[in-house]
Amino acid sequence: MPVSLGLGLPQMKQYDIGRDVAAVARAAEEIGYESLWVFERIIFPEPATQGLYGVPGLPWPDQYRSVADPLITLALAAGATSRARLGTSVLVAPLHVPFQLARSLASLDAASGGRVVAGLGTGWSLDEYAAASVAPFEKRGAVLDELLDVCAAVWGPDPVSYEGELTTIAPSEVGPKPVRPVPVYLPANSPRATRRLVDRADGWMPVAAGADRLAEQWKRVQDLAAERGRERPVGVCARANARYSAEPVGGAGRAPFHGNTAQIVEDLAAHAATGVPEILLDLQGTTRDASELIDVAAEVYEAARAAGV
Q1: Is residue 79's pLDDT more than 90?
Q2: Is 222 in contact with 231 (CB distance < 8 Å)?
Q3: Which positions fall inside the Luciferase-like domain (predicted)?
Q4: Per-residue pLDDT at 200 exceeds 90
Q5: How far apart are CA 279 and CA 7, in angstroms?
Q6: 3-state secondary structure of 13
Q7: What is the rounded CA–CA span in Å between residue 68 and residue 279?
Q8: pLDDT in tens, 243-271
Q9: What is the CA radius of gyration of the chain?
């Protein structure tokens, strides 16, 4: 069975958000992509307190200088499409007030006819935490746990009530409700995060950074799910951060999803062989504009399907 393919929407500084989000979303759905995705970066600190992903000395990519708000981007895509699922990969949950984020996701799901998937993470940027002023970085796991509780309450039946460290909801009617409880996907970058995923989430959202590594990670998630008695299957959507090139990228050390169409499809096939059911391909970082993004997305999709991926 072919892997489900998703596409990252244009959010970076080279795109005209008001024009290009709808155009790319509409084209992607027509091409055959089954889901559309956004990510979150809220500032570009100069100088940054820490390197990219918290790695000392690793520079932030220039495209992060301007990244459109993820939920506004998804709202624009929702209005231009009718079938594709609309996902976040990921929202940095502790940068948001839990009650307000739960309501925004519910409203977007209601408006789109039940198409939202909430990929949530804790992030890594100290500067972003300071700018958001919701909670200190040290409490990121606790804030994510509270957000999951608040979402379950807000998306459930009225009257809604909740009391936590950041959130107090008096018994209230809270609407609109999502069409169904929005599926929640979480990363699993530590033993504690993997337990949270298995116990509380609908699915897993890893980075596709090598087929062997993905297979090992997927086995650990499945083993822990069996160990903890999880009965329902764990959904998966692997994020592939692609760097497209018109020419082949040579060398034994070529990073996954860095290369021309044939190389990207080769990597898609290898990662799909691990058994993960869905791969999100984010091509926006190295395409010049929406027209090129649509052309490359179509070329990769058609080549992948022709190859049986």
Answers
A1: yes
A2: no
A3: 19-238
A4: yes
A5: 9
A6: coil
A7: 22
A8: 999 999 987 889 999 999 999 999 999 99
A9: 19
Residue 303: how many CB atoms within 10 A of its CB?
Answer: 17
Provide the phi-psi class of 296: left if phi over 0, else alpha when psi is between -120 and 50, else beta: alpha
Q: Supply the pTM of this predicted model.
A: 0.97
- Per the prediction, the chain carries an average pLDDT of 96
Secondary structure of residue 303 in the 3-state scheme: helix
pLDDT at position 298 = 98
Q: Show the tokens assigned to 190.
A: 């530590």
CA distance 198 to 236: 12
State what percent of residues in the chain have pLDDT above 70. 100
Domains contained in the chain, CATH given:
4-307 (3.20.20.30)
**pLDDT tens figures, 4-23:** 999 999 999 999 999 999 99
Contact 40/67 with Cβ under 8 angstroms?
A: yes
39 pLDDT above the threshold of 90: yes
- The residue assigned the tokens 């000392």 is 56
Distance CA 267, CA 209 (A): 10
3-state DSSP assignment of residue 116: strand
Residue 195 near residue 162 (C-beta atoms within 8 A): no
Give the position of tokens 């080769």. 266
Read off the DSSP letter of residue 155.
T
The pLDDT of residue 251: 79
- Nearest CA to 99 among 159, 135, 147? 147
183: exposed, middle or buried (C-beta count within 10 Å: 0-12, 13-18, 19+)? middle
Q: In sequence order, what DSSP letters do the residues of 36-68 get, joined into one string?
A: EEE-------SS-SS-GGG-TT-PPPGGGGS--
CA-CA distances (angstroms) from residue 247 to 72, 260, 272, 298? 34, 6, 24, 17
